[in-house]
Amino acid sequence: MPKKNDNKKNFIAALPKNIFSGFVVSLIALPLGLGLALASEAPPISGVIAAIIGGVVASILGGANVTITGPGNGLVIVLLGAITTLGEGDMYQGYLYTLAAIVVSGILMILLGFIKMGRMSDFFPASAIEGMLAAIGLGILAKQFHIMIGHNSESGSILGLLAQIPTGIFNLFQNFDLPTTVAAIIGLVSLLIMIFYSKIRNEYFQLVPAPMWILILTVGLSYLLGALNIPYPLDESFLINIPDNVVSNLAFPDFSKVSQGNFIQAVIAITLIASIESLLSIKAVDKLDPQSRRSNVNKDLKALGLATTISGFLGGLNVVTVIARSSVNVNNGATNRSSNFFHALFLVVFILLFQEQLRKIPLAALAAILVYTGYKLATPKTITKIAKIGREQIIIFFVTLMTTLITNLITGISAGILVTFIIHAVINKDVGFFLSNFLKPNVLLYKEKDVGNFYVSVKYFCTFINFYKLKGKLDMVPENEDVILDFSLCNFVDHTVMEGLDNYSETFAKKGGNIEIIGLDRHETDSHHPFAIRKILPFEKFKPIERYFTKRQTLLKATADDFNLTYAAQRNTDTGFLCDFVFFRTRQIPYIYNTLSKENKRYMLFDVEFTEGEFIAREVVKTTAMHINLDFDIPVFTLDKEGLLDFKYGLAGFKDIEIANHPDFNKRFFLSGSNAEGITSVFSDELILFLESHPYYHIESNGSSLLILKKERLMSVQEVKALLYFGKQFYKLVQIQEIHV
User: Fold this and answer.
1) Cα 301 to the chain's mean position, in Å?
2) Residue 343 DSSP symbol
3) E strand or H helix at 53, and its extent?
4) For residue 548, what pLDDT band results from cuts at 50, 70 and 90?
5) Which of 152, 285, 536, 621 is packed most tightly, with the most Cβ within 10 A?
6) What's the mean pLDDT in 149-171?
7) How far is it, in rounded angstroms, from Cα 268 to Cα 264?
């Protein structure tokens, strides 16, 4: 009960912030809703209906925290294609058929939420999604640019409309027409407002978003001309059309084409793009949430589906989660879903009270807003960003982009997925590698009891087609915990996974947890970008890995500097110094790498790869170990946790040695060797106290040097630091004891 009261008090206390944020968002949502509907060749009011229905339903039933819902950029091309195709020349009738497709799409989204398909966006390569979004941006820009310069009747394919832009600009100067020229001036000024708005630093000016400034100035212009008795140069064909009575003029869906192929194709396209756009936006907004909450994507998908169904029945467009409006929502202090509700409430007020003013908005002004939106989706910076990740990502991006522009979104994203898989197969020179391992369990998660962190090991490969398996495991880990993610047994990791893991790392860091990736130090890449593809380097083709530093290697180098050690990433096949230790006696050691050492080789800490077993049972293991050279001789011994390796060392002829007056030590540790008297003289009271107060390590002496390691896996950087400290202290205590003896 107290917790419920606290939640209620917090909700009420946060209401002013959420009301204000909802109001600011509504100032953006109104022009965007009108514009996106017009860009889709739907009645302008349909976009506002989607925003209102989405805001109400998602705020009550949704699973996200600070997202805003309404019509989305990504669906403009899909809806335009559906209206054009289904209407067969009659755009209004096509709109009614499309409303039916929207209703069916909403029902499918509800089903996707119930079968927990919130992970669906993970099955699409990141660069393919970027290509799809760029195609959507070009599609919006292609049509809206002509409207922005007063040419409302231009039609054709996306590429055709883009090619006509220079001609449209030339005709603007060649053939003077007052309404067209005025519309073009309004459009260009509106575009300049969108471009330079962020550069104006006046805090009062910034209280009103750029799209609302455009509406205020353009509507204000009509009133100013009226006050001066100057005829308004734009007729109804250049202004948006709002019905006199919105409620009595609602459109309703026509289901007469529900069984036809082009209707089914439209439903699939609408559902696919709406789901992807929403899921990607939800993930992006979760990163912006000041409270670092994680949305329930499946619950939100169901709410979006229900809102879409209701919106379609009332003549509205699809309801999706929108990133731009959600970002504004967060930046204005929103703390919960009520801001989405208030944004919808303010839109209702605008529609009911300001219909006359809305009818004075020029189409060119709304088109300018959309041209800017389209450009932001297809900005050249996107190409530069993708090129830095890897050359293969540019191929994926452009294949998706061009296929989408020439055909449609479904074909485009399908082509992106196909070319990504082909590139992965070519890089690995083996299609069967993916096909044979796809269905195998490849992710292991458990909590390491001795230190309390979670350990995740990934085998075979990790790409967009099986990333959901790794995500499922990471979602099980509380975000305030530490995770070691080991890819040492994984041959191939793609860009989508690397980018996704970066998002997880940010989320964990916000909650006080940490994800450290290990095991990629032997993986090749053509780029220094942290999201670049990583492929295991075959032993016989081991290239200089210092060219391909991972984050772990960079941190290891920094650690070496902190401890006054030198760092060498490259492999070293001189491993004979390890053969005298019992731990490695029956194991093959081809090389060590990532070596931190003193110039005199007193201390050496390194990653080591070794094999154990023979033939079919042969297994490759990687671990991190520390080697310390002694300048004095000590007895041969092994020290380990009681019961861990005593059977193995028993076979080597070692027996458990009891230390007098230290029953707790004898109970917890297995100390063995052939020279019991000499060994007990090494283990002083100070050394035993040191061992009892630190985590367990496996320690061996071969008489002239020490080997210290912890687990049969690579260590994280923090664990490396702990091992360096432990090894140095252990050596000092042994040295002190030898001096006394």
Assistant:
1) 18
2) H
3) helix 44-61
4) low
5) 285
6) 89
7) 6
Distance separating alpha carbons of residues 281 and 701, to the nearest angstrom: 57
| Contact partners, residue 322, CB within 8 Å, separation at least 6 | 67, 68, 69, 70, 71, 72, 73, 281
Q: From the CA atom positions of the chain, what is the Rg in Å?
A: 33
* Residues β-bridged to residue 639: 671, 699
Q: What pTM does this model have? A: 0.83
**3-state helix/strand/coil string of 381-403:** HHHHHHHHHCHHHHHHHHHHHHH
354 closest CA partner among 48, 95, 59, 92: 48
Q: If you search the block for the tokens 């890897």, which residue do you land on? A: 390
Token representation of residue 497: 């996974």
Residue 530: which of 508, 512, 553 has the closest Cα?
A: 553
**Rama region for 653: left / alpha / beta (φ>0; ψ in -120 to 50; rest):** left
Alpha helices in 438-483 (DSSP H): 467-474
CB neighbour burial string for 53-70, b if at least 16 within 10 angstroms, e if fewer: bbbbbbbeebbbbbbbbb
Q: Which helix (H) or strand (E) holds 638?
A: strand 637-641
pLDDT tens digits for 561-601?
998 999 988 888 888 888 888 888 778 888 899 999 987 77
Residues 6+ apart with CB under 8 A from 36: 47, 71, 72, 73, 76, 317, 370
Three-state DSSP at 537 gives coil
Say which DSSP state 379 is in: -
